[in-house]
Write a structure and sequence with these properties.
alpha/beta; seven-stranded mixed β-sheet; 9 strands; disordered C terminus
Length: 266
């Protein structure tokens, strides 16, 4: 079986734009769901809606794959599953190491979607000696002292970092020095890597902050329109008002610092 060490995905050599590459997994997920329901063909409109993109963009993306569908029939679901899987390199075996087996690392180890998508968890690695030998998802945890040997023996080219932020860069450097060329980073920090190494960052806190921004904006629009604002947004607005009041100039009953009366009552 081919391994990730000797074979690289074909997408870059074929000149597929990165934005298209980023959407291919969305199409594959939608197509896999259709395949599981034994749906033989799908129109570009139906598939675009299932993937959350517009149909014109989908047709443009598929043109890079050389797949144009059949007028009046649509796309062959099984063939598209194979075609996209091949472009993403998912018809190969990709051994993966997960470094940092805390709560997040253990959850990733237990994720059942790796194997079905062409990824094999080759090893779980942690710096805590007490973790060594303990099975997680049926795989014994190994100490970080074994990192380089494991990468060499298993032919690993993809590493997953789930360590605390302070340890992530050192782990990253060891992975790269050992031959890893792609890293999925869950640590809340930005990694510095040399040319030729791809990093994808997953930061849940950032995603939540972006959602909070949108919620605040929607609450402001509702308030401006005279609509009832959700309780959470009302609490935030009240907190903002209290903060603004605290920053106001001192009143006649306040001292020059705005916190205690200038003249105490007799």
């Amino acid at each position: 079986m081919a391994t990730g060490r000797t074979h690289r995905p074909a997408t870059r050599s074929r000149g597929i734009p990165e934005a298209t590459v980023a959407r291919l997994p969305l199409y594959l997920r939608a197509l896999t769901a259709l395949s599981e329901r034994s749906v033989p063909t799908v129109s570009s409109e139906e598939l675009a809606a299932a993937a959350g993109v517009n149909s014109a963009k989908l047709r443009k993306d598929f043109s890079y794959l050389g797949s144009y569908g059949t007028r009046g029939v649509g796309y062959d679901v099984e063939y598209l599953v194979y075609q996209i899987s091949r472009e993403l390199g998912l018809t190969q075996d990709w051994p993966v190491v997960i470094v940092g087996i805390g709560n997040l690392g253990a959850a990733l180890a237990n994720y059942g979607g790796f194997a079905s998508r062409g990824f094999r968890v080759a090893a779980l690695i942690d710096a805590d000696p007490a973790m060594a030998g303990k099975p997680v998802a049926g795989i014994p945890v190994q100490h970080t002292d074994e990192l380089e040997r494991i990468i060499r023996d298993e032919g690993v080219s993809i590493g997953v970092i789930a360590t605390p932020a302070g340890a992530a860069q050192e782990v990253c450097e060891r992975l790269v020095a050992a031959g890893v060329t792609s890293i999925l980073n869950f640590a809340p920090t930005v990694l510095s890597v040399p040319d030729g190494v791809d990093v994808r960052k997953v930061d849940l806190s950032i995603e939540l902050q972006i959602l909070a921004f949108h919620e605040q904006r929607k609450a402001g629009e509702l308030a401006a329109a005279g609509t009832v604002v959700p309780a959470a947004s009302r609490r935030e607005t009240a907190a903002q008002r209290r903060g603004a009041a605290a920053n106001q100039a001192p009143t006649a009953d306040q001292g020059p610092d705005g916190d205690v009366p200038a003249v105490m009552p007799t």
